[in-house]
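Revision sheet: structure tokens.
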Amino acid sequence: MTNLPEAKLAREAEIAFTTIAMITDYDCWKVEEEPVSAEIVLSHLLANAETAKKMIVDVIPRIPIEPNWPDHFALDVALVTDRKLWPEATVQKLKPILERFLLPRPCGPSP
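Predicted:
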């Protein structure tokens, strides 16, 4: 029920990621609540879907167009293995993610 693997993979791919999690029932910890039924879960699920639609309509226009959040540069401090040691097959598979690290770097002092 977690999306931890997706969050970690998104981070490695420098993709900004968020989770929208909504509750369908409380029976696992709220003992004073009525026992859960399929009808209760379904009604909460349908209500959550409507809430999610409203959230998406509100949030999408607020998302910046330029990918310049810290999430988009996570690999800047995560790649520690010398590039000369990267297996070529792996580089080719990950080229869309690694492309900016594959560009030749200028030699000498910066202007």
